[in-house]
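Work Package 3 (structural annotation) set out to generate three-dimensional models for the target panel prioritized at the project kickoff. During this period the team completed the workflow that converts sequence records into discrete structure tokens, so that structures can be stored uniformly alongside our sequence database. As a representative example, we reproduce one entry of 249 residues exactly as it appears in the project archive.
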Amino acid sequence: MTDNLSRPETAECKNASCCPGIAASDLQIRRVREEERTRLARELHDELGSILTAAKLELACVKMKLGDVDKDIEQHFQHLNATLNAGLDFKSRIVGSLSPSSLGAASLGASLDHLAREFTLSTGIPVTVVHQGVVLPESTQLAIYRMVQESLTNVGRYAHADKVRVSLLEGGRNVVVVVADKGRGFDPARYQPGKHGIAGMRQRVEECGGQLRVTSTPGKGTRICAVIPRSADGAPYASIPLQSSRRAH
């Protein structure tokens, strides 16, 4: 049985290709923003992580010195320890969101798997991720990661979807990235290119020499598709159309 999420939606946003070209200042702003994200992530990891870990050690030390305590006090200890663990988990999620360090330690596909798991944990919406082992430049990997991240954010905020499918597939000299949800969709006639981070996603994709297409049908969901060259030189995309009917199995 074919998964409906693998098919293109029927109505394309008419304004999807109307965004202005990428200005040099826009690219510089985005680079600076990524550098700031990385710096902030590093500080959160090092400073906040150290503070929370030190607090856990202090709590363990106090508990050991006190020895046997009343059940009521023991419950307070357990609650405080659980709160500190929750703080460490939250810190890890924020750091991963700001700077996907997993891109340097694992494949892009593995990083998308992790992103999908975190999304499901926070929203309860199941995400299916299908990917192939595609070798890409670091800048392209980051652009794809941010595109999927922003798309999932939009799904969580607006789509009211019951499931999402993310695919990362080879297509000749290109890589094809699709995020499709079975949510409420929207009316393309009322689509505003500057909203919901679509313009930013398009700029990232175009910077890598690719194209982004957004299609949606009210009541049937939204599909965001990017076709990006696999090479680092930003050569024009080729070999596969944007409205590819290729399905992930």
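The beta strands are 127-131, 164-171, 174-181, 211-217, 221-229.
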